[in-house]
Amino acid sequence: MDFINNLVSGFIGLGPVAMLAIVFTVLGLVFGAGVRKSFRSGIVTAVGLAGIFLVVNVITGSYIPAIGALSERLGIVKPVVDMGWGVAGFGWSWPGAVGVILGTVAVNLVLVWLKFTKTLWTDFWSLWHGQVMAAIVWGLTGNLWLGIILAVVYHVIIMKLADFTAKENQEFHQMPGVAIPCSYVSVFGALSKIMAPWLRAIPGIKDVKASPEEIRERLGVFGEMPVLGAVIGAVIGLAAGYKFAGIMTLALDTALMLVLLPRMVGVLMEGMVPVAGAVRDWLLDRFGDREINVAVDCAVQLGHPAVMASAIIVMPIAILVSAFLPGVNFLIIASLAGIPYMCGAIVAYTKGNVFHTVLLALAFVIPMMYLASTPTIAEAFTATASKLGVMADVVGSGGMITAPDPGGEPITWIFVNLSKLFVR
Length: 424
Hints:
This protein is mostly helical. The chain has 18 helices and five strands. The chain has one domain (about 1-420). The chain has helices at about 1-15, 15-30, 35-75, 90-95, 95-115, 130-140, 145-170, 185-200, 210-220, 225-240, 245-285, 305-325, 340-350, 355-375, 375-390, 390-395, 405, 410-420; strands at about 80, 120, 180, 295, 400.
């Protein structure tokens, strides 16, 4: 058991980029893509994902201090600290992590064989959301097996949501044969599929045309995504009280993101498509009636221009909402990095309409902040950090922590609150 634990922990410890390179190379070899194509696919896919992370890290690294400075100018103080994706460490360090991985993989293979799901879960990194949910259940209840079981059930639900959203994502983002089982991205993507048609039926709202192309046509040079991004970045820099150099840096970082991100997604897809096609062809040759989608990271949804155009509008609104809405006990700063991925889940259903995407994103962000503010979630995160001996600078001094992803994601919130029934 120690050998398996060390092997799995070592693999997970490689991080998402190296994991993706290995997984897609192995998939290509197993499903007959050939040695050359398999190795090229693994490397190119990993380079694309690394490029996406690099660009997203640049923009969030610029925006988080700016919005933090804005909140300080407004004199906002909240009792709970938003740890953002820093809580991902819970998922890979709690005692049941290997059990969740092995259980999810085994159940997924059985359910694919039984035709209960079309999603072949190859994106092992995205298991971290369910792992964190399991860890905070364990932190709250002390029950390791309850955490493992709930995590596997959670991942089954996410598989079905990935099935539900696969067709539209494949068509809109031009990525055939893939599915995206990524926690709140799957949840909010599924909700967008249900809600977007209602949004387009509302008088006034339905008539607003705001695709990147339409924005460009109306605003001329100021409608070009890099120029629009630079203007928005400059406005946020001014509001944060930055001097000229800081304003220019934020403006250019925003413009850079809008230029480079779609190109990095293109690199990712260049590597991914051959292997996804090989998997699909192999299955069609042997099981002609089967439709199976290869699971990929939600970063593949970031390439459309409407995604980041929407995200840079939602980010400052989200911080102001978290600052002034009664009942929200934290400032959403560290978790701003998740907003682009949320917008990426929405655009396939708004058909790239920036205005509609912003409305739906805010409709999801606000309840998510309230759920993450509930006492159970903050208590569970704080108890887990204390048990694992992490984040001592906050928890050790009596502070409390939370994270909207996954703490404010509805399924996680329900499972964590249900687990209270097992607290002795």
